[in-house]
Design brief:
Elements (H helix, E strand, L loop, with lengths): L1 E5 L7 E5 L10 E10 L2 H7 L12 E2 L3 E9 L11 E4 L2 E2 L19 E2 L11 E5 L3 E3 L6 H4 L2 H13 L8 E5 L3 H12 L3 E6 L4 H10 L3 E4 L7 H9 L3 E6 L4 H5 L5 E9 L11 H6 L3 E4 L5 H12 L5 H4 E5 L3 H9 L5 E5 L2
Parallel strand pairs: 11-12, 11-14, 12-13, 14-15, 15-16, 17-18
Antiparallel strand pairs: 1-2, 1-4, 3-5, 3-9, 3-18, 5-6, 6-10, 7-8
Helix pairs in contact: 3-4, 3-9
């Protein structure tokens, strides 16, 4: 079968390869014929061999944002059946409930990521333990289903790690796909939203945001500060801020954008240390929180949000044949596309 694989722990060391089709080896294995698989920011960071991704295998099939059809199951599989449409949890742990804190499997000490720590979904077929396989609603668009994983990250951030409700004024820094999905979920919750980016984001990302009814702000040298742009739009500071850019300067300046006694939630991963003037945060009594990954409940709720049409797939996704997957990585690196997704059929 064809698979898009990392070849070495070096920048851009990846290719489309002919590899053996995976085979059922355990009683709880599920073999999935992949239909669509998104290229995630984590995939891109690993592809570029960025700091913070040293745990990724030097040789591995990328891909953890997938949808597909079950084609074979192990002898003890009972939760899914052959022919069923499914998606797969990305962050996987085999720890039991009493070994976890509040069921947060994404924080488990034994966690592995599908497509980073074992072969993933940028291939014609992939295998997952039935524990991590979720059946999809009948008739669901399989492109939309492949957005379940990134939306689950926004779901965890907005519903479990933030205090955002109807009427709140929310700033999202970083208009990548996670930032965009956070903005859409905040809007769905009834918030007013401004999403910020740099001039490089104007061509695709901020244009898409405005098309989706979100407010936008462009920040950078010789441009008004984000605080001034927020005040111009709303006449006041924001009630909450979601940091989704991974840019140290965005987090360092976030205190100046929100009101006193507010919440800033960080959902991004940083490639460098962030120098924060904590006194600024303390004097405004800002609650600084982090949000990492997602769990089963977030996946299940995300399927409900997708069914409700919260995410307009045609406005966000560009489809590439699996054979052109490296072009999808290149376009993602150059910010020429909002969300690249591979057709693996």
């Amino acid at each position: 079968m064809k698979a898009l694989r990392r070849e070495a722990r070096e920048a851009k060391a990846a290719s489309i390869q002919d590899v053996a089709k995976p085979e059922i080896s355990g009683p709880h294995d599920v073999l999935i014929a992949v239909e669509y698989c998104g290229i995630c920011g984590s995939d891109l960071h690993a592809y570029l061999n960025h700091a913070g991704y040293e745990s990724v295998l030097p040789e591995v099939t990328f891909g953890h944002e997938l949808s597909g059809t079950v084609v074979e199951i192990g002898s003890d599989v009972s939760t899914v059946s052959v022919g069923q449409k499914v998606t797969v949890e990305a962050i996987q742990s085999h720890m039991s409930g009493d070994q976890l804190r509040n069921g947060l499997t994404q924080l488990a000490s034994d966690r592995k990521v599908h497509g980073l720590h074992h072969d993933g979904g940028m291939a014609e077929f992939t295998i997952a333990h039935e524990r991590f396989v979720l059946g999809l609603p009948d008739g669901m668009d399989m492109r939309i289903a492949a957005l379940t994983e990134p939306l689950s990250i926004a779901d965890h951030c907005l519903f479990e790690r933030s205090d955002i409700g109807a009427g709140d004024k929310v700033v999202v820094t970083g208009p990548g796909i996670i930032g965009m999905l956070c903005a859409l979920v905040a809007k769905h919750k009834g918030a007013e939203v401004i999403i910020s980016g740099t001039t490089a984001d104007e061509k695709v990302r901020l244009t898409a945001a405005r098309r989706l009814g979100l407010g936008t702000a462009v920040v950078g040298r010789d441009l008004p500060s984000l605080r001034d742009q927020v005040h111009e739009a709303w006449g006041c500071e924001a009630d909450a801020l979601i940091e989704a850019s991974g840019a140290p300067i965005a987090l360092a300046g976030a205190w100046d954008v929100v009101r006193t006694d507010s919440v800033i939630t960080v959902v991004s991963i940083f490639g460098h240390n962030v120098d924060l003037d904590f006194t600024k945060f303390i004097r405004k009594q800002i609650d600084l929180r982090t949000s990492y990954g997602s769990n089963r409940a977030n996946f299940e709720h995300s399927l409900e949000l997708l069914t409700a049409g919260v995410v307009p797939v045609d406005d966000l996704v560009k489809i590439y044949p699996l054979a052109d997957g490296l072009q999808g990585f290149t376009d993602a690196e150059n910010q020429d596309v909002m969300k690249p997704m591979l057709d693996c059929r």
